Amino acid sequence: MSAVGLQHLFAMPTLNHYQLHLFSGFEGFKKALHQTNFFSLIYSLSDAREERRNCLAHVRDLAFTHSHIQRIILASDEMEARLISHLSPSRLHGVVSKSLTLEHLQKELVVLLGETLRINDNMLNHWYRSQNRMLSPTERAILRYMSCGYSIPEIAAQLERNIKTIRAHKFNAMAKLGVSSDVGLLDAADILTHLPAREPLNPALSKPTFL
């Protein structure tokens, strides 16, 4: 979502009582963080893979240092939003698809911002319901290797398995995640690699927006 789109969204009566700070890069936010006590962090994920990976790396790092800041992710579409919800072990306050209509996007943000620092119950319920569909250690390893650019034969060599076994694990992962292409699987691999592996002890995606 563009800066103009966010400004228009937060100019609406239901959101205009929030003070909006827009940052085009992470360094600008880090400097502002020393002077401003931000209430909520909204990351608008980039459609470009490399930029998205960088965004996810930032949220991973922030999750360990700024637990008091509410964390909301604006995903590119419904599939990406579902993958983030499914794969993120870090307790996020919300994941919203930018493909929603302006009216629905506004409603989602009003609800999430109104929850202050309480974790979204729906997100937690979704996490617990998904436990029996989580990826196996081998499936997770395959996704991480894919995210680093390894081919199936190279992954088979790294894991000391035959290629047919690796392909079977790959298709199992695709079925669990509800994706039907290698592109979707790479999206999942990036999310899995760059979101926190656990809820941090000191718990907070490319154009960041901070409230």
Structure characteristics:
2 domains; disordered C terminus; Rossmann fold; 211 residues; single chain; 5-stranded mixed β-sheet
Describe the structure.
The structure is a single chain. The protein has 211 residues and is α/β, with parallel strands linked by helices. It folds into 2 domains: 3-131 and 195-210, 3-Layer(aba) Sandwich (Rossmann fold); 135-191, Arc Repressor Mutant, subunit A (Orthogonal Bundle). The protein has 10 helices and 5 strands. It has helices spanning 3-9, 26-33, 49-63, 78-87, 102-113, 121-129, 137-147, 152-159, 163-177, 182-194, and strands spanning 21-22, 40-44, 70-75, 94-97, 207-210. It has a 5-stranded mixed beta sheet. Strand 2, helix 3 (49-63) and strand 3 (70-75) form a beta-alpha-beta unit. The longest helix has 15 residues, at 49-63. The chain is elongated, with a radius of gyration of 18 Å. The model is unreliable at 119-132 and 196-211 (pLDDT under 50). This is DNA-binding transcriptional activator BglJ. Keywords: DNA-binding. It comes from Enterobacter cloacae.
